[in-house]
Amino acid sequence: MAGVAPKNGPSKTEDEIKADELHVRQIEAEKALKSANAPWWRRADPLTLAILAAAGSLVGNILSEHSKAKDDQALEQTKAQYNLVLQAMATNDAAAAKRNIHFFIDAGLLADGDCRIRNAIDSDNPVLPSLSGTAPAGPANLLSPPLVASLYNFPPGVDGRGQTIGIVEFGGGFDRKDLEQYFSRLKLPVPEIIAVPVNGGGNHPSMTDDGTDMQTAMDIEIAAGTAPRAHLKVYFAPVPKTEGFNAADFAQAVRQATADQVSVLLIGWGLTESRWKDEDIKLVDGALEQAAKQGITVIAPSGENGVTDGMTDGRRHVSYPASSPWVLSVGGTTVKIEDGKIKSEKIWRDGQSATGGGVSEKFARPDWQNGVKVPLRADGSTGRGLPDVVATADPAVGYTLFVHGNAVVVGGTGAVVPLWGGLIALLNQANGHNLGYVTPRFYREFGPAKLFREITEGDNGVSGVTGFKAGPGWTPVAGWGSPDGVKLINWLRTHPDGTSTAANVTACPATTSQ
């Protein structure tokens, strides 16, 4: 027992006995913590780890204090402080942990000289449930957003805090019960969502098979599954009454998101360029330009109908708004996974469907694409090439979602939009400011620096029309390739662009307890 000398050994001093006693208490506490049911400080959150490190420093100081203890009262105070720290660290109750941490900071027991811990506790509640999501139960070849994030090496230690992801929808809606079931399966918090009506639209789940609810669920569940602490604003415009889109509604949704200063704007909708009126493209593109110039990363899909974009004239076509130079255009791949890693990745094409990609007939080639080989148009002129990047989109290796009370599997380049949106939100958070209009940097920096997984196999030919082939460098079917989140954030940290303004920085508050 602690405090009792061996029968045949020399007697211990009082200080040595007290040191032994404290050591035993420490061992017992460590055993208790190891057996606890996933206490919040053990979860993959950088702030909670920072808190733990600060507490560890405190414990170290406490252990060194035993030699200075002059009486039992001093030792008991040391024990009491140590036990208080253990209580705060072991609780799974967010409110209790918050109160405890405030107490330790205010009492000088927990170092927080830069107010980093206090700021995050007050604004973001980093002691809420685990952010390390796992795939829902299902066939092994199906994917969940957290699993896809791990496959693409999304940066660790960030979760989208301080970011607002805007989502444009046309009709449909979401059901809170669906989201609760889905994120419960992922062991992630239900995202904070605000539905924003645009020109008479609203969050109105159709409960039909028209695809609008599915699109909304896909955007929300994939974006929040990769950036679980980001705020979401869903801009619901009315369902188009005729073929195509109402350009006024489309532009207004983008303008509203711009006015709300979202960090990232997801547009999972598109239509073949040739089916848009020139004046309508001009109206919508004016809104996209304004969003980009105000520091918003706008993302749109290259389409699911291959090189023809669904047209039957035997020619190559691309989709708008993915063809806009103000947009980050994303395409799709097929991945083969072994042992939790991507073994191979090629262009997604499964017979009837394939990733979009090609050369715009509406937009000239931007100067930032001068360094890559964008094919000429049929008339020999130059145009904007797309996509810029890709990620897994094959429905056969699809994303698991939850809609209308049922688990479903989806794919397509529309699923790549929220995936890349979540990644941009994470990069924004980790980088300390928003990337904003980042597409030119993909061509001037990221691509040439080989920060992506290069896709060199496959093409997007459909319906007898020859598609574009993947290959080294940028191609009009795979862009620069699929993401490597760690490579991207490491580059951003060592190559700041010097033009973005810091965002979401909270000033050190006055010392108060809650």
UniProtKB/TrEMBL annotation:
<feature type="domain" description="Peptidase S53">
    <location>
        <begin position="142"/>
        <end position="495"/>
    </location>
</feature>
<dbReference type="InterPro" id="IPR036852">
    <property type="entry name" value="Peptidase_S8/S53_dom_sf"/>
</dbReference>
<dbReference type="InterPro" id="IPR050819">
    <property type="entry name" value="Tripeptidyl-peptidase_I"/>
</dbReference>
<dbReference type="InterPro" id="IPR030400">
    <property type="entry name" value="Sedolisin_dom"/>
</dbReference>
<protein>
    <submittedName>
        <fullName>S53 family peptidase</fullName>
    </submittedName>
</protein>
<dbReference type="Pfam" id="PF00082">
    <property type="entry name" value="Peptidase_S8"/>
</dbReference>
<dbReference type="InterPro" id="IPR000209">
    <property type="entry name" value="Peptidase_S8/S53_dom"/>
</dbReference>
